[in-house]
């Protein structure tokens, strides 16, 4: 198998979309290599719509959609889709629920999170990113027996 970055642009003339995992597929140890970025740019220049799919929170997904050579990002395990507008100067957001229901969904997620914290005292909300829109995240417990409680 050849590396995708070594392929000629004409190889992709019939490919319209590529959806790919981001976490440790496009990235390695959490970082996007320059070669990967250039491959994304070449694919986009060849007319291929590039859409990474990630568990990453909305805040990170939004940033990727703005800054990376991609046409959109599906974030929060499918909860939100940030699509670059055709003129390249804006982002449209689409949610797994109606936009007007966002406050209800956010409230319900907080209720679920608080219930989990009551039932599992070792559970703590992740504080790595405050901009989550359709998901909640917890810090991985340091001890194995605590991990087994969460599973």
Describe it.
The chain has helices spanning 34-45, 58-67, 102-119, 144-150; strands at residues 17-21, 27-28, 31-32, 49-53, 72-75, 80-84, 91-95. It is α+β, with helices and mostly antiparallel strands. The protein has two domains: 4-95, HAD superfamily/HAD-like (Rossmann fold), CATH 3.40.50.1000; 99-150, no CATH class. The chain has a three-stranded antiparallel beta sheet, covered by helices on one side. A two-stranded parallel ribbon has the order 1-4. The chain has a two-stranded antiparallel ribbon with strand order 2-3. Strand 2 (27-28) and strand 3 form a beta hairpin. It is globular. The mean pLDDT is 87.
Features:
single chain, about 150 residues, alpha+beta, Rossmann fold, 2 domains, 3-stranded antiparallel sheet, two-stranded parallel ribbon, 4 helices
Quick summary of this structure?
By secondary structure, the protein is of the alpha+beta class. The protein contains 4 helices and 7 strands, in the order E-E-E-H-E-H-E-E-E-H-H.
């Amino acid at each position: 198998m050849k590396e995708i970055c070594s392929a000629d642009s004409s190889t992709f003339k019939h490919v319209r979309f590529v959806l790919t995992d981001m976490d440790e597929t496009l990235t390695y140890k959490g970082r996007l290599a320059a070669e990967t970025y250039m491959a994304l740019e070449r694919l986009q220049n060849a007319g291929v719509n590039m859409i990474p799919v990630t568990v990453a929170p909305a805040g990170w997904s939004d940033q990727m959609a703005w800054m990376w050579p991609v046409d959109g990002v599906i974030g929060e395990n499918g909860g939100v889709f940030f699509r670059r507008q055709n003129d390249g100067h804006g982002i449209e957001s689409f949610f797994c629920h109606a936009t007007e229901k966002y406050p209800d969904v956010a409230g319900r997620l907080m209720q679920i999170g608080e219930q989990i914290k009551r039932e599992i005292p070792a559970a703590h909300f992740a504080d790595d990113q405050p901009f989550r829109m359709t998901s909640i995240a917890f810090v991985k417990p340091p001890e194995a027996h605590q991990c087994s409680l969460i599973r």
